[in-house]
Write a sequence for this structure.
């Protein structure tokens, strides 16, 4: 295995000298933590801010003094809507729903003619959702108050109108709720590892073939398996480096969290980082071997890149599987490489219980996959050199 | 010494009814002895490169065998490769490594110690006259500079047998003369067995002691340049070669 070490050192040096590619990969993995968290916290903060603000937009407020009085009594602040609110809403410049009051509102209400209040919203604009809920609740309360007043005037008990009382209780603990938002973090980390190892995997196989340096390499007495193991070691090392960098980038990035709620919910300490790495490092090694196995059959770097798109597409579609799957987490998920890691990283983020077998199954699968791919590459090597 | 004994190789491309069979080598035999430059001369597609690849254990022959210093290549490829330096058709270098690193990499894979590998790289660079290029990355190398580096890489473990596949391809006159000079020194001073594969008659005529003419997968004639000329009745080596190589086609 002396040959393996020589190959490992050479391939690693070669990969580290490919500065431009390396910089792009390292930079994107290091910046990923801060960027993802920053985007998340901005999203959460702005929806929190909107949830807290008490402003409601009303067009034609002057026609409805009774409604205005009601809103103000309920500590809401009615504001006149801009004249071109419809256009603004369609263009997504306005993130609030607008209530439109007809001119004859007050008179119709007094006559009992059921005046029509229009609640304008664009469902293509998700930001407006929060505002719609609040306005709808306020209007329901207003209508109920009016009804109660009229019934009371006729001597009917208000309790008759409300035979059932509804109370809400949310069972999700704060971590589980935050996991809905932070659920994409494992996916980003995984993709970073995949892209990090991709270039080295192709360069040591299809690249070597395209360059015409594979044939001379095979004319040395080093055994084919030792050559392949050395190459794989270097590719996996690059993938693991990216895994470590991208996991650690989340640690300092947490100080950037603007939203206090999210900061309290997204707990990614050294323990979580260590668990992430325990899952990611074997996977990086297995995926490196897989990409090499696919690339060794390709004559050029470009061809290998196209063939490996299948792997990247497969891994990037895996999160959808758990998203669309109504049954939630299935027992077989831990047996599929990449899906297992995404599932388990999700559990780490949700703070769920974690046992040694949960780690061992994906580890065994990864080891098996890597070994099978390496033997395959070693077998293909000679045919690849001469074809 | 390299002995090639009646090797056959047939390639099958495609599958089923569309399968095409190409008989690349149909019984080539020759013997390249030590302290001699043996030429494998033949037109393009004659089977020279396939024969060399079989000698380098990259392709397994369908029948026949190849011995390198008495070691059967098919049985003990690693021992045979340790006694051979091959500059093949594919002579790619690693562009991000320096010439020295390229050479030392192969030396280490041949099991040489670090210090010995560096010393040998410097020695070969002096012999092939490219010492000033040793610390440069091979990225911007010219054809000739690449060839010298690749040749040094092939010779790094000081093999007793040297196999060169079209080594003068893409070289200018200066470089060709330098290469010729180096090969003669290896033959005369160190008694190496050198196999020189080419389709250029002038090269072979100038350099080689013994010529094996290969045509359509067969060795059709063997002898020194003068012997071959005398036998074919032509004064000119080019005429001799054409009659030997393409006369064979009429027979086949």
């Amino acid at each position: 295995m002396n040959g393996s070490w020589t190959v490992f050192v050479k391939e690693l040096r070669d990969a580290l000298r490919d500065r431009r590619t390396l910089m792009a990969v390292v930079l994107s993995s290091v910046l990923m933590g801060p960027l993802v968290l920053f985007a998340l916290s901005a999203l959460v903060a702005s929806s929190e801010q909107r949830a807290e603000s008490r402003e409601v937009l009303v067009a034609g407020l002057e026609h409805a003094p009774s409604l205005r009085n009601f809103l103000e009594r309920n500590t809401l602040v009615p504001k006149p809507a801009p004249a071109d609110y419809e256009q603004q809403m369609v263009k997504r410049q306005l993130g609030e729903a607008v209530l439109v009051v007809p001119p004859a509102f007050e008179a119709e209400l007094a006559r009992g003619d059921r005046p029509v209040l229009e609640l304008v919203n664009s469902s293509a604009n998700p930001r407006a959702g929060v505002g719609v809920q609040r306005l709808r609740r306020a209007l329901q309360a207003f209508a109920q108050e009016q009804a109660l007043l009229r019934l009371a005037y006729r001597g009917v008990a208000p309790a008759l109108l409300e035979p059932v009382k509804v109370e809400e209780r949310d069972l999700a603990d704060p971590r589980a709720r935050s996991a809905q938002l932070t659920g994409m973090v494992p996916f980003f980390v995984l993709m970073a590892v995949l892209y990090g190892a991709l270039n080295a995997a192709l360069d040591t196989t299809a690249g070597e073939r395209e360059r015409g340096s594979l044939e001379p390499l095979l004319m040395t007495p080093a055994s084919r398996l030792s050559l392949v193991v050395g190459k794989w070691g270097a590719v996996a090392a690059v993938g693991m480096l990216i895994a470590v960098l991208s996991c650690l980038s989340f640690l300092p990035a947490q100080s950037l969290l603007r939203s206090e709620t999210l900061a309290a919910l997204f707990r990614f300490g050294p323990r979580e980082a260590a668990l992430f790495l325990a899952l990611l490092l074997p996977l990086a090694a297995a995926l490196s071997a897989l990409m090499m196995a696919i690339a060794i059959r390709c004559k050029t770097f470009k061809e290998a890149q196209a063939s490996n798109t299948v792997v990247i597409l497969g891994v990037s579609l895996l999160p959808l599987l758990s998203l669309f799957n109504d049954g939630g987490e299935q027992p077989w998920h831990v047996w599929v490489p990449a899906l297992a890691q995404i599932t388990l990283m999700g559990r780490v983020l949700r703070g769920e219980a974690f046992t040694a077998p949960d780690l061992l199954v994906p580890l065994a699968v990864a080891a098996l996959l890597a070994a099978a791919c390496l033997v395959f590459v070693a077998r293909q090597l000679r045919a690849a050199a001469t074809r | 010494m390299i002995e090639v004994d009646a090797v056959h190789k047939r390639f099958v491309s495609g599958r089923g009814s569309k399968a095409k069979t190409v008989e690349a080598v149909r019984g080539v035999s020759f013997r390249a002895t030590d302290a001699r430059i043996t030429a494998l001369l033949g037109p393009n597609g004659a089977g020279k490169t396939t024969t060399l690849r079989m000698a380098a254990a990259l392709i397994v022959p369908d029948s026949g065998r190849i011995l390198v210093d008495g070691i059967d290549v098919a049985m003990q490829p690693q021992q045979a490769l340790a006694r051979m330096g091959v500059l093949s058709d594919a002579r790619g270098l690693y562009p991000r490594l320096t010439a020295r690193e390229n050479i030392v990499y192969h030396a280490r894979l041949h099991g040489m110690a670090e210090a010995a590998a560096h010393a040998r790289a410097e020695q070969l660079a002096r012999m092939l006259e490219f010492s000033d290029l040793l610390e440069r990355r091979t990225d911007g190398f010219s054809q000739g500079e690449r060839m010298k580096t690749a040749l040094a890489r092939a010779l790094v473990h000081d093999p007793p047998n040297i196999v060169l596949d079209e080594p003068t391809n893409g070289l200018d006159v200066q470089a060709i003369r330098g290469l010729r000079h180096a090969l003669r020194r290896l033959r005369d001073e160190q008694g190496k067995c050198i196999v020189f594969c080419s389709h250029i008659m002038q090269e072979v005529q100038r350099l080689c002691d013994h010529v094996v003419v290969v045509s359509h997968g067969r060795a059709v004639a063997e002898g020194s340049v003068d012997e071959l000329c005398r036998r074919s009745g032509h004064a000119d080596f080019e005429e001799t070669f054409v009659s030997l190589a393409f006369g064979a086609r009429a027979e086949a």
Summary: The first helix of chain A runs from residue 2 to 17. The first strand of chain A starts at residue 55 and ends at 59. Chain A touches chain B through 26 residues (CB under 8 Å). The mean pLDDT of chain A is 83.
